[in-house]
Design a protein that fits this description.
The protein is α+β, with helices and mostly antiparallel strands and 310 residues long. The chain has 5 helices and 14 strands. The longest helix has 15 residues, at 141-155.
């Protein structure tokens, strides 16, 4: 086990700081240093997988009623218009764990795909956007589970996808704002659709809160090029959605409070994805955003990261 140092960036809303001579739409960033434990799994042939130590703790899961974009699901899916998808907010206790520093990359995927099969075959090159340091994407949920099983078999450690609560706790890194950067996000800090999109009779904005519009890269980026969160995790906002273990439930009524995956009831034909993705808007990249995909669906905007208990 080793330690690594990194810089954490926070966006400060100018209007809230009292500098009223500056337009409210402008933002500034504040940087500070972080230092966390990490360890490395050697996948051979020059490929490794870094894991960051996530401390145990308690947090409030979900979003407050006044958080912008929290009702996006009901706006997109009229049948869920009255469903509190990101609520009710509730306290969850999370045990210490290890989480991969980045979304699983294509180089890491190829290395593990070459390991002995556990349950199902893996395509060593599934991704639409090629690049060894780009996140693997276009994979089914069951492919991500097979990756974890093969890595567990190789290492003797128990790797798996994170539960939804583990993911949100790790993403927030102790923050309570919509993003771990603060009240907004910019395309200098994450990979998402930073331009407006007109579809039918609606315009979906490329900005969030008092943030500015940015660029739309139209593809994944290499992992680790944007600043990390306070736990030292990269790419938790945007780039690719990340598969979680949990069944889809329309809200948090009856959800576990011990950090375990919610795999009873709900819609067991779908699994949770978190974090937003390169073709999605900033409001869908928030720490509390929930989305679902069917088990039989893959998408060029879905990848994953892994966890292991300490």
């Amino acid at each position: 086990m080793s330690k690594f140092e990194f810089e954490v960036v926070t966006i400060a809303d100018i209007e809230k700081t009292g500098f009223l001579d500056i337009e409210a739409s402008q933002v500034k960033t504040i940087s500070c240093q972080g230092r966390v434990d990490f360890r490395v799994e050697d996948l051979e042939n020059g490929v490794s997988l870094e894991l960051v130590a996530i401390p145990g703790g308690e947090f409030v899961m979900g979003s407050p009623n006044d958080e912008e974009w929290r009702n996006w699901y009901g706006n997109a899916f009229p049948s869920l218009r009255d469903v509190n998808v990101e609520g009710p907010q509730h306290r969850v206790v999370i045990n210490p764990l290890w989480m991969s520093k980045y979304p699983v990359t294509q180089a890491q995927w190829r290395a593990v795909a070459a390991l002995p099969k556990v349950e199902r075959d893996l395509d060593p090159e599934p991704s639409n956007f090629q690049g060894s340091r780009h996140p693997v994407e276009s994979i089914f949920w069951s492919d991500a589970v097979e990756f974890c099983d093969r890595l567990s078999q190789k290492t003797g450690q128990q790797y798996q996808l994170p539960s939804e609560s583990q993911w949100e706790y790790a993403c927030r890194g102790g923050t309570t704002t919509p993003f771990y950067f603060g009240e907004t996000i910019t395309t200098e800090l994450g990979n998402y659709r930073g331009t407006d999109w007109r579809f039918l009779d609606k315009t979906y904005p490329g900005f969030y809160g008092r943030g500015d519009r940015g660029i739309y890269r139209q593809q994944t980026t290499e992992v680790g090029i944007f600043p990390p969160n306070p736990f030292g995790l990269y790419d938790m906002h945007g780039n690719v959605w990340e598969w979680c273990l949990d069944h889809w439930h329309d809200n948090y009524q009856g959800a576990p409070t011990d950090g375990s995956a919610w795999v009873t009831g709900g819609d067991d034909s779908c699994r949770i994805v978190r974090g937003g993705s390169w073709p999605y808007f900033p409001g869908l990249c928030r720490s509390a955003t929930r989305h679902k995909y069917a088990l039989g669906i893959w998408h060029i905007g879905i990848g994953f990261r892994i966890v292991c208990s300490t």
